[in-house]
Design goal:
The protein is an alpha+beta fold. Helices cover about 35% and strands about 30% of the residues. The protein folds into 2 domains: about 25-110; about 110-285.
Length: about 280
């Protein structure tokens, strides 16, 4: 084996290599390198970048949407609380108005009732010193039982306000005296008030004249001691709080007089009485 004894060719000096490294235009070199990338590499890079940006945008939008939803819920809750507060305040105002209206009505509510017998009067008006607050007088009666009856009934207002007895227009048919005829059919006659306006503590007298009726049947004496009715509609001073007071009248043998033993009070349009007052007709005997 022979050795190559040719002399080595000397390389470039080191200072020339260093000069070469420092003299390269690296941005240009990087750009040149990128130009050698494949189109598929560029496509993959673009898709990855777009996917990243899309994910970033989606996450931001989701966060923003949640923040807006939370804010909307908070605002909705605040609005709901304000609405509830307004409703409660309206209900409280309505209750207060009802209480005030009820207090006003109570302050002017009249209450008509009977005058308890015997009613004492001033000496000189009657030789016996008293009068009957309810008088039933048969003025005339034929042989067949037909006759004329005069009824007088005194009432007192024990309420807090003025009582207006309603006896005109559509109230006319409600201010009546009521009995029966021989067949059992209802017979009514209109009434008259000496003073339709009755102040608190004041009294008025009602008068009824019933002509050409069977006295025994009208007064209910064909089936017992007697029973007939007087109906009086009245209101407060403003025309409100309409009440129908129905007086049940019977004859007391013990006291030998006609007496009111039951009063039913009905509000307008109601069939059942809201208050009923009863007394023993025999207690005055």
């Amino acid at each position: 084996m022979s050795l190559d004894r040719r002399p080595l060719t000397p390389g470039p000096p080191l200072y020339l290599v260093g000069s070469l490294v420092t003299s390269v235009d690296w941005p240009f070199a990087f750009t040149l390198a990128l130009t050698h990338l494949k189109i598929a590499d560029w496509t993959s890079l673009g898709v990855a970048l777009a996917t990243f940006l899309l994910a970033l945008t989606t996450g931001y939008m989701a966060w923003k949407t949640k923040a807006l939803a939370d804010q909307a819920r908070e605002e909705s809750g605040a609005v709901r609380k304000q609405a509830d507060a307004v409703v409660q305040q309206a209900k409280a105002s309505e209750r207060q108005a009802e209480i005030s209206a009820a207090a006003l009505e109570a302050s002017i509510q009249p209450w008509l009732t009977r005058v308890d017998p015997p009613a004492v009067i001033s000496v000189g008006e009657d030789p016996f010193g008293f009068r009957l607050p309810l008088l039933v007088d048969v003025l005339e009666q034929s042989e067949v039982g037909l006759g004329t009856i005069k009824v007088r009934l005194d009432l007192r207002n024990v309420g807090a306000g003025l009582a207006l007895i309603q006896a005109v227009d559509h109230y006319r048919d409600r201010f009546i005296i009521e009995g029966r005829d021989a067949s059992g059919a209802t017979v009514t006659r209109f009434g008259f008030a000496a003073s339709p306006a009755v102040p608190p503590g004041g009294e008025t007298r009602l008068s009824f004249l019933v002509k050409q009726v069977s006295v025994k049947h009208f007064l209910g004496q064909d089936q017992g001691d007697g029973l007939f009715f007087v109906n009086v509609p009245y209101t407060d001073t403003k025309g409100g709080q309409l009440v129908d007071a129905r007086f049940h009248i019977t004859f007391s043998k013990a006291s030998d007089m006609w007496l009111v033993y039951r009063i039913e009070y009905r509000r307008d349009g109601e069939a059942r009485p809201f208050v009923t007052v009863e007394s023993d007709a025999a207690m005055w005997g």
